Amino acid sequence: MTSLLSxxxxxxxxxxxxxxxxxxxxxxxxxxxxxGELSFCGHHANRLREDIVRVAERVVLEEGxxxxxx
Length: 70
Known about the structure:
By secondary structure, the protein is of the alpha+beta class.
């Protein structure tokens, strides 16, 4: 399913999640349009930005993280 609108983007002071790809500290959590959530470190969030935007319903960023997908 492809999202026709940009995902809702919010920020939080800090995150406690770990990246689902490499277990580093998460900087971004994405709620998928198909259900569920994935967490990404800064490296993977920026590397996968096009895919994240395509499937995201909502994106939560850690304050101070400059995500390339905005």
